[in-house]
């Protein structure tokens, strides 16, 4: 008697409909994976394009000086806001973030001294405002405030130091919403900024791309904390500033 043979569990035993369904599933999965890879590639390309596009660069128009020691303002080649007389013999560079509590304390302690030295014509101050604390607010206040900094310097450079002091006085707590643009404009109005172009610059985020690119450049240069203070290009402890530039 012949024993019945067992059916082999092979692809040849699969019904044509099952085989077709399996192939269609595999094709669909492959299509999804290809789509995901393409989407990731596009996203990476867009982010790179954003990094490579610094947007418009702020420009401070030349201001006439009453005498050779008159205080003027400009944007340095590295993107800092320079306030000081052309004849100033010393340069203080301040790398700061307007959301940074330690920067607020620095401004409260040394800001008046620095302003006095700048007005005396002996020191030029370079304010290197960056934005790396966007995570400390829910509205990217750090970037918006840095944008406003360039708007202020461009609009009315002679009032910039007063504006900066007032902005730090109104610094919002970390972890909150940050100041809305309307409040930033109100603070500036209190410091003498009445030009509608300033408000437009703040609302439009005119220099947000520049802020992003400038921040990356500053951090890539080795800056790891704010405030970082430099005197004539050399890093110093903030506590040394009084002796270095004090009268």
Structure, described:
The chain is of the alpha+beta class and 247 residues long. It contains eight helices and six strands, in the order αβββαβαααααββα. The chain has a six-stranded mixed sheet with strand order 1-2-4-3-5-6. Strand 5 and strand 6 form a beta hairpin.
User: What is the N-to-C order of secondary-structure elements (H for helix, E for strand)?
Assistant: HEEEHEHHHHHEEH
What are the segments in which pLDDT stays under 50 over at least 5 consecutive residues?
4-12, 42-50
Helix content: 40-55%
Mean pLDDT comes to 85
The description of the largest β-sheet is: 6 strands, mixed
Estimate the strand proportion.
Answer: 5-15%
Q: Mind telling me the C-alpha Rg?
A: 29 Å
- Determine the number of helices (DSSP H or I, runs of at least 4 residues): 8
The span between the termini is 118 Å
* Morphology call: elongated
In the sheet with the most strands, the strands line up as 1-2-4-3-5-6
Annotation, overall tally of beta strands:
6
Query: Helices and strands: which structural class?
Result: alpha+beta
